[in-house]
């Protein structure tokens, strides 16, 4: 009984440390984004709070949480304030599928669980927009439904190709399967389509049409402020870090030094895209999904299945 208690306490401590590290990573990711955007736009970026602006994220957090919290007339009050908390909780729960080399847990169907969690995110955006009772937020929600569902099809098909090659639903098996070669080297066209789908899932520029400031002011989160906006903000940047980790698991399997180097490169690339590319037109985004990316992925699936069938025929 005492051993079970120590085991549970150790696991709870590991999860608490994960939460703290994740929140600190989100804080400094925002600082990295502002520094990179400042470099692209030929300005300094934040450099006043602390040494070279290193304490700027904590200053922003205090400022956001000190904002007044008030009731919006004709809004669904309980759902309006519950959805950001659920959105942040969903971001935390999705980290349970990551293959940690500890004794916390082991999931044989972690990839399927990740797809379920990602699908739930679009519902929360719809509920946040509807509960605010705002025209701009509802337009952002309508865009989110069509945009996310469209690109979730291509994203799931890409994951299907990788699962078909590794013959497993577990991220740990993906890492073991790539000990001799990387999927990134043999499937780099698939990685490019995967990256585009991830940018849409994360609502990042140039695919941030759900929050298009030039058209919808701020989209689905226009009425959020103080703690609600902070939770939405944390969930968005937490998902950027999560997809950086998962992309490393899906496409490479190397030592920890190179793995974290890939994570830094992937996160920085997502930020750089915001500073370099203009926002796409909505019809062009849908056209690219259904008429370019999806047919290419289907052709890739047929090619991979044919190659694997021929290899099995040669073996047996």
Automatic annotation (TrEMBL):
Catalysed reaction, written as an equation: a ubiquinone + NADH + 5 H(+)(in) = a ubiquinol + NAD(+) + 4 H(+)(out)
Source organism (scientific name): Acropyga silvestrii
Function: Core subunit of the mitochondrial membrane respiratory chain NADH dehydrogenase (Complex I) that is believed to belong to the minimal assembly required for catalysis. Complex I functions in the transfer of electrons from NADH to the respiratory chain. The immediate electron acceptor for the enzyme is believed to be ubiquinone.
HAMAP family membership: NDH1_NuoH
Statement: the UniProt record of this protein carries the keyword Transport: yes
Name of the protein in its database record: NADH-ubiquinone oxidoreductase chain 1
UniProt keywords, alphabetically: Membrane, Mitochondrion, Mitochondrion inner membrane, NAD, Transmembrane, Transmembrane helix, Transport, Ubiquinone
Transmembrane segments: 6-32, 77-98, 104-128, 149-169, 181-203, 224-252, 258-277, 289-315
Phylogenetic classification of the source organism: Eukaryota, Metazoa, Ecdysozoa, Arthropoda, Hexapoda
